[in-house]
């Protein structure tokens, strides 16, 4: 099986994305993750650009990578100098990477407009920059910027720029779709034309402006190119770069070519989430292969079929990329969704038991009133237990009161809540303050119940989302509150709906506490 080399530019082109910035420490941690994933080349940055990138190349040498090569990025020399005097080229060599990659101009329009030099001068600049680098570095890649646009505008000149790089004996020539507007069929045609003139190994670097970056990269691999550049999660300039989290499984599972091992592929989802975490960006749910929804089944017909055979609605087994099948519960559910969830929660439920239908109808009715169980599986589990008569009443809330007060215009508001709960035969009446009314109510409820159930001290509130339901009644609209809670072992979601935001929050908080108590006892 032929090997396709993976070249990751998350740490360089990825950081050219709006909102993405990594500390040097983040870059080092990501580099190690990429190395473990089996990425062959890690482009760490542009040392001629900023001190952070210089520090990366210095620091990465202090720790050992298992197999990846570190690449430094830059450009061909400036027009009015020679390579040995060019600041950018000198800093690239000084960074002492395993590989140096420079980009140069292919498109005659860019040579004239961006560099403002003659076409001939640009060819000299490509050749002598690369030739000089080849004498000073073990491996050199050449990124032919705007190659596809350049080829379409002036094929002869575009090929001449590649020939200049080939003459300098570079190790790989990377065809770039820099503006990201090329279509997959053009990639196939142009690569086969290039191969008539160029014998140097070819690579591909695509951007996603036409939403075709992954498709274009796969098309290029199909055409026999040997290096694919991209970024984790598709981070990158404008609409992003080609997403390696989609390209890697496509190379292995669809094109049946070698790139990383099966074991490394099982860590793909983990690496994707790690990079999101360090970038401080919420993972994209609908991301192919690695997203939370990539194998989430909602329609009753789908759930029924995947239980008979997963391949009916899954294009690959999710485990091979470290993901898993999920069944969602909603008003699009059928009995199969309820039965699948019951099995997941270790609840015995017979498909012929009339309670299955009752639960289904109750969900459809509640979703119609604004509830949503997809992010609130703990509330759904409690609902099932109530329907089956296995729900236990650990406590009863006899009432609550919340006061939100702002006495003068220049004073911040204060919030206080009182609750009355009954546990066994004992009544507890407690008050607490908080940052706002919901937090005060949460504090009061826990304060009252922790006396009876000290395990509740472990529960932390991780997320609190409020959504106004679209009834068009302004501040009198119904509200849905989704809460995510967690302890040391797990996280769970609960939901509440009311036309009163405090009441909706109260319902979700109560379910969260109730769920924790049920699970502590079951353990
Ligand atoms: C397709 C890509 O993604 S390429 C990577 C793009 N990434 C970045 O630009 C991020 C890092 N860049 C930087 O930190 C800065 O732009 C630097 C340090 C590289 C250069 O900064 P400056 O010297 O201030 O120049 P500036 O940012 O305005 O860039 C334009 C200069 O680059 C030159 N240039 C652009 N492409 C090339 C090239 N392939 N070869 C040589 N010079 C080039 C232009 O001719 C222009 O030079 P001039 O001002 O002497 O006419
Ligand atoms: C080299 C590069 O980043 C590009 O052409 O998009």
TrEMBL record:
Pathway: Amino-acid biosynthesis; L-isoleucine biosynthesis; 2-oxobutanoate from pyruvate: step 1/3
Residues covered by the Pyruvate carboxyltransferase domain: 4-266
InterPro entries reported in the protein's UniProt record: 2-isopropylmalate_synth_dimer, AIPM/Hcit_synth_CS, Aldolase_TIM, Citramal_synthase, LeuA/HCS_post-cat, LeuA_allosteric_dom_sf, PYR_CT
Enzyme class: transferase
KW Acyltransferase (keyword) present: yes
Superkingdom: Bacteria
Reaction catalyzed: pyruvate + acetyl-CoA + H2O = (3R)-citramalate + CoA + H(+)
Keywords for this protein: Acyltransferase, Amino-acid biosynthesis, Branched-chain amino acid biosynthesis, Isoleucine biosynthesis, Transferase
Assigned EC number: 2.3.3.21
GO molecular function, one term: acyltransferase activity
Family: Belongs to the alpha-IPM synthase/homocitrate synthase family.
Name the record gives this protein: Citramalate synthase
